[in-house]
Please model this.
Amino acid sequence: MKRTALYQKHLDLNASLTAYAGWEMPLQYSGIIAEHLAVRKAAGLFDVSHMGELMITGAAAEIFLQYLLTRDVQKLKTGRATYALMCNDQGGVLDDLLVYRLQDDKFMLVVNAANTETVSEWIKNHLQSKKWYTMLPEGADATVLFQDMSVNYALLALQGPRAREILLSLSAADLSELKPFHFILDDSLTGDPVLVSRTGYTGEDGFELYCSSEQAAMLWEKLLTEGQVYGLQPVGLGARDTLRLESGLPLYGHELDTRTTPLEAGLDRFVNLEKPFFIGRDAMMLKDAQLSARTLVAFKLRKRAVARQGCPVYIQERQAGYVTSGGYAPFLQASIGLALIARSSLPPEKKQTEGLLQNAELVNRSQISAKPVLSVEVRGKRYEADFTDLPFYNRRKKG
Amino acid sequence: MQETIYYSKNHEWVKIKGELAWIGISDYAQNALGDIVFVELPEPGTEFEAGDVLGVVESVKSASDIYCMVNGTVAEVNEALLEEPEKVNEDAENAWFVKMEAVILPEDHDLMDENDYRRFCEDE
Model:
């Protein structure tokens, strides 16, 4: 099993470890709920070095990514990152990722650990197939280089309402004006350049710090020491999952897989269908016309229970689909979940509406004190549930 | 009346007092499970035999079955745990899940006393 550059630090902190996508990762330190609440109320530090960093470089890098990704990469300026999806020909999701534009002709894709290999193969095969050459202007330089830099990079995530103060107190760089999805190279943290990006996966303000594996332990130690007075705690993958779910963020292998399109998963705002071409677009244009067969909905159980991935979901007593993620939300203190359901199972008045949020609003308004139409089966028992808006938790509204 | 406590290899405890018994999970179990967020308990009046699944305890990360270690009938369930399952984390050895009556401990049981159980946990 692979270990990150911070493995020894996790042992020193008495973390309980878990196997995740071929990596031995910290599951929890003090406890999932305590760590979850630390991120909501103060700050948390995560080792997410298992994520893959893939470099796409060369004169035609932008055009090649336009071919591979759902997002309009042409609009992505140097110094900025964006969330995007990589799809197969059927429009199914191969991975969800962040694209960083490091230079005009240099991009970094940050991919899920479990998908790093598949995505690398996919990229290499498409690079070789040269089908994307049809997107190149006449006589253009077709140079694109691919490099998997995952082993060279460690990734630390500093997340929470106090993350900014902690980083500002340690850095000499001008981070106070760094906007969400912007990044800079900061050499004041370790002496070597650290890519500081205002991004995250917790629903809180925060940063993701990409540094060389050699510098990781020093940066980790520095942040934990400096952050102590701010209430900073190390946080494991257990709370990373509860935080992302409470914020309504999708996780590959749950809401997303090769059989689910981004449109079904409610990620249409990350798909630029107006682009002339990207892999999966043709299929999505067809499915989009049919308003996609399935749709992702968010629910809250009326009673305490844990509806995990795979639990059947019923609407008006008919099975409509399955839970993709579910669990106890520590900050909201509620049993929440996401489910992929057949659009045809939604009551007729809701089928015409476009977005998920509108659906939920309609249901909620028409449903006060009405009999529940929604229920989830856990171990053979039905639990009443209500549709709810996404995100479950919004830091600007505090819940 | 004398009270005897036994532990199972699945990390439940049972306190037996005459024909009554209380069942819960051990401190080792709560620690291994992590934050407990839900317990599913049987209906009072339900009869169980040793080895049957009595209920479920859910932590943030996983769900685990709780097994019955004796033959008997559920006299009472600990309703407080339904609202505050974290009590199991706080004091596992006293946070009973069910109270059983008409209890019979099967003669061929493989339960451990406190000392044997402690050694068993050290080897886990």
